[in-house]
Design brief:
Strand content: 5-15%
Enzyme class: hydrolase
Number of helices: 23
CATH class of the largest domain: Alpha Beta
Catalytic activity: (5Z,8Z,11Z,14Z)-eicosatetraenamide + H2O = (5Z,8Z,11Z,14Z)-eicosatetraenoate + NH4(+); (6Z)-octadecenamide + H2O = (6Z)-octadecenoate + NH4(+); N-docosanoyl-taurine + H2O = docosanoate + taurine; N-(9Z-octadecenoyl)-taurine + H2O = taurine + (9Z)-octadecenoate
Helix content: 40-55%
CATH superfamily of the largest domain: Amidase signature (AS) domain
Pfam family, one: Amidase
Keywords: Hydrolase, Lipid degradation, Lipid metabolism, Membrane, Phosphoprotein, Transmembrane, Transmembrane helix
Number of strands: 11
Strand order of the largest sheet: 1-3-2-4-6-5-10-11-9-7-8
Largest sheet: 11 strands, mixed
Number of domains: 2
CATH topology of the largest domain: Amidase signature (AS) enzymes
Distance between the termini: 57 Å
Structural class: alpha/beta
Family: Belongs to the amidase family.
Bound molecules: 2-acetamido-2-deoxy-beta-D-glucopyranose
Radius of gyration: 23 Å
């Protein structure tokens, strides 16, 4: 009796609090919107100029090559293309111009490119004059990079209007290394504002679409790479991953993406929202249509020049022995983390992958993720340890993208009320879902003090130890894991805006700093959708309902599987991904 009255009262207070947050968030968004007229004009102009430039380029190139010539180039994978270029079959300029044409036609459909990298032409011409192409392992290969990669004389805004025309003085380390290997960085691709969302959007460049279904999201935050590569406009691209930003769009766009162990690839010269995170460290990584290309990229980039340019990168060349290992591996598999229940298509994909890997000779054993809720709590607490201060600071004078609004509303929630709000929502009866209550209380928390942060970090170390203790098993230790990359497949953008509900499958391996990659395995079938009709999730709450609604219209869309190994075993992770793709085949 008592509980139910209490819970009714709580509900009313909670509804009021929610109303307040929504109202407050809306006021912030609107007041920024009003203040920013000048900046917005500048942003619009920049975008128009860029689109004009792309249109002109397209027209200039229209008569250079026949359709057959272009089709021949576009039909090759990265390994074949590099080899053909080295043998002089196609000049680097011809390859570049073909991919520029293709990429610009992709962006017309999906809005995936933010800028054309104009110096690429001079670079391709210079490569064309070189007498010994075989010394360049990526000779003539056009490579796309996410907008936040620094490139000399170009801006890198991460979707912030205040960063327009703030030009970089130098190329970032990765771009320097790519050029030294004979690759040709040729376009910059779109991202979600401040890279903090798994949806795709920023008010500066607009929304990017899924190449398989234009009205759906490609996933974020490396959305432009996902859309461009999935649409055939690039063979190799580079994204960044802080919570799933490489693996999630790869899964939604039907391509392969790899997040290496932190400090294997250099981040120097990249632009990001929050420098200084230790346990929530951003990594960069390759995205491509096939695993062979990811391997080609990693094998080439782990080179002396990168170790020299960035002394904090572990000077560990590509481990051919580990990659080439042919012994059967013990691989744990799981179809569900017990927190976000995957839709049937995603579960089926993992079971298919299990069968395929068994056929390739590996030993697959059932695995259970230890206490993923704890990992998620640690991730969110560390990610927003400053109470969202930094996020708010950089967005202060910006138009805030709608996909960030649910997050921003919580971060802007008045901290004094936040305490009361958290107290109430933590009375679990009040909210229909303990995890949504927890999410609210984690995000409205004020700035954590140093002792609290050190405590969180210590608990993260404990979680890491506990996680890997489950890999030690009486029948033999695990070498790798496979599991879902997400509970969802692609759907309408609006279902992907409350990010925290989505990232449990990918953020876990950021917290653990494991190499992890995504491989497309199947497509959603009508049977999957029929099974989805009975989906209730583990909590039957708003997040579960959202997962179901998002995926209801997804027949034919790609579904990936995530492969994971221990830190520093990047090459073994790529091995598992390659074995999986070899037995599944290219979709
Ligand atoms: C293609 O056309 C452009 C513009 O007319 C020209 O600058 C470029 O050199 C041409 N490329 C080749 C390979 O002929
Ligand atoms: C980038 O994405 C945003 C939102 O996702 C979209 O509005 C914009 O038009 C895109 N811009 C480009 C140049 O792709
Ligand atoms: C730090 O924050 C925790 C949790 O809010 C609190 O219990 C503790 O007293 C604080 N420590 C200091 C030194 O303020």
């Amino acid at each position: 009796m008592l509980i139910s009255t209490e819970s009714k009262n709580c509900n009313i207070i909670l509804l009021t609090l929610c109303g307040l947050t929504t109202a407050y968030g809306t006021v912030i968004v609107l007041s920024n919107w009003r203040k920013n007229r000048q900046l917005r004009k500048k942003a619009l102009k920049r975008r128009e100029n860029e689109q004009l430039c792309m249109q002109q380029l397209l027209e200039q190139l229209a008569n250079n090559y026949t359709k057959e010539e272009q089709a021949e180039i576009l039909g090759l994978n990265a390994v074949e293309l590099v080899s053909a270029a080295q043998q002089g079959k196609f000049s680097p300029l011809k390859i570049l111009e073909t991919y520029w044409t293709k990429a610009i036609s992709c962006t017309k459909a999906t809005n995936c490119i933010t800028s054309v990298i104009k110096v690429a032409k001079a670079e391709a011409q210079e490569l064309g004059a070189c007498t010994d192409p075989s010394q360049f392992p990526l000779f003539g290969l056009p490579v796309s990079v996410k907008e936040c990669y620094g490139i000399k004389d170009m801006d890198a805004t991460i979707g912030l209007m205040s960063e327009i025309n703030n030009l970089d003085l130098d190329d970032c380390v990765l771009v320097k290394v790519l050029k030294s290997l004979g690759a040709v960085p040729f376009v910059k691709t779109n991202l979600s504002q401040i890279t903090f969302s798994l949806a795709s959007g920023n008010p500066l460049f607009g929304d990017t679409s899924n190449p398989h279904r234009l009205e759906f999201t490609p996933g974020g935050s490396s959305s432009g790479e996902g859309a461009l590569i999935g649409g055939g406009g690039s063979l190799l691209g580079f994204g960044t991953d802080t919570g799933g930003s490489i693996r999630f769009p790869s899964h939604l766009c039907g391509i392969c993406g790899f997040k290496p162990t932190c400090n294997r690839l250099s981040l120097a010269g990249l632009h990001g929202p929050i420098p200084g995170h230790v346990n929530i460290a951003t990594t960069i990584g390759p995205m491509a249509r096939d695993v062979d290309t990811l391997v080609l990229a990693m094998r080439s980039i782990l080179c002396p020049l990168m170790f020299e340019l960035d002394p904090y990168i572990v000077p560990m060349p590509f481990d051919e022995k580990l990659f080439g290992c042919t012994k059967p591996l013990r691989i744990g598999y799981y179809v569900d983390d017990g927190f976000n229940k995957p839709v049937p298509a995603v579960q089926r994909a993992v079971m298919m992958a299990k069968k395929h890997l068994e056929t390739s000779g590996h030993i697959l054993v059932p695995y259970k993720i230890p206490n993923v809720e704890r990992a998620w709590e640690l991730f969110m607490s560390l990610c927003f340890a400053d109470g969202g201060k930094r996020c708010k600071e950089i967005l202060k004078n910006e138009d805030i993208d709608p996909v960030l609004v649910p997050l921003i509303q919580k971060l802007y929630f008045p901290k004094c009320l936040g305490k009361l709000g958290s107290f109430l929502v933590n009375l679990r009866n009040c909210w229909k879902s303990p995890r949504i209550a927890k999410d609210f209380s984690l995000l409205v928390e004020k700035e954590r003090n140093i002792s609290t942060v050190w405590n969180l970090e210590a608990q993260t170390f404990e979680y890491k130890a506990k996680f890997f203790s489950t890999w030690v098993q009486p029948e033999g230790n695990l070498d790798a894991l496979i599991g879902p990359p997400s509970a969802m497949v692609a759907g309408p953008q609006k279902h992907f805006e409350d990010t925290t509900a989505i990232l449990s499958y990918t953020a876990l391996y950021v917290l653990l700093n494991c190499p992890a990659g995504c491989v497309p395995v199947t497509k959603v079938t009508q049977d999957d959708i029929d099974a989805l009709k009975n989906y209730e999730g583990h909590f039957g709450d708003a997040w579960d309902k959202n997962t179901k609604d998002a995926c209801m219209d997804s027949v034919g869309l790609p579904v990936g599987v995530q492969c994971i190994t221990k830190p520093w075993k990047d090459e073994l992770c790529l091995r598992v991904m390659l074995d999986l793709q070899k037995s599944v085949g290219l979709l």
